[in-house]
């Protein structure tokens, strides 16, 4: 059975983006950038520049995201064209044919996706969708950056009850960034 993995960058104070949705405060240079273990999570347009164009997906073949994550700055119509893209929104319109829009029963759609064959499902964001899907999240893969935003979009933006996870992996970098993996207990 496939897993739903919330793979996201986060600040020390628990934010995945600034209040305006930008993420300029995250570190984009340093030793944590030298080995891209998750090429699947690199936007399609950046894969070529990074020499990853023909790199096969290793972890994910499906990306699940909210409207704000999907509607990235620059108006890219299909940010992860190398993955099966699913956008959860009641407002998004005019999506390319390779983008599925889910307008209701998100939990049911995720349950059906988990039953399919394939690689894991990447929950890309945002915080509201993550809070809604917390009962279905099997693992957290957090890229923790040594920065405080003070305010912004929280990792889980909404009612999220106590949910226990256990750490299964930790990678620490000289840049101060750490990659932490947690599996649901």
From TrEMBL:
One of its GO terms (molecular function) is 5-amino-6-(5-phosphoribosylamino)uracil reductase activity. Signal peptide: none annotated. One of its GO terms (biological process) is riboflavin biosynthetic process. It comes from the Bacteria. Residues 3-177 form the Bacterial bifunctional deaminase-reductase C-terminal domain. InterPro entries: DHFR-like_dom_sf, RibDG_C, Riboflavin_Biosynth_HTPR. Pfam families: RibD_C (PF01872). This is Dihydrofolate reductase.
